[in-house]
Write the structure tokens for this entry.
Amino acid sequence: MAQKPAAIAVQTFTVEPMRVYDAILDPAMIARFTFGPLLREKEILHILNEPRVGGVFSCKFRRGDTYIDHIGTNIELDPPSRIVFVWSIAGHGDNDPSIVKIDITSTADGCCLRLIHEMENECAAFVDRSRAGWGKMLGILATLL
């Protein structure tokens, strides 16, 4: 089986791993580092997350006349070191969504987060854009924490 295209982003934090882990799953923090005014102008309609294995999430926003709902399911939660979820956009890629894997490891100064966003082959053209987007979001999260 061929390896899927993947966007990889790495970010260091000066806080303990559990603070980063909790922030990634907290709807209030998600609003601040992924869809809020620090990243891009969008109207957040809702951010819902059930932080349990099998729990679903939905991050719906509006940009102009366009509505986008990022949806998925948490498939692995191992605090404070690992989060894995299925990710897609409602109405797009529902048959074979992408997988996002987040690993958080302790460092002498806090922790390091490594995110791998595995995509389907037809999404290979979006790898660089996804890498940049995840990198920007994780940089904002590091600043907030």
About this structure: The mean pLDDT is 89. The CA atoms of residues 29 and 51 lie 13 Å apart. The two ends are 39 Å apart (CA to CA). Helices lie at 17-25, 27-33, 127-144.
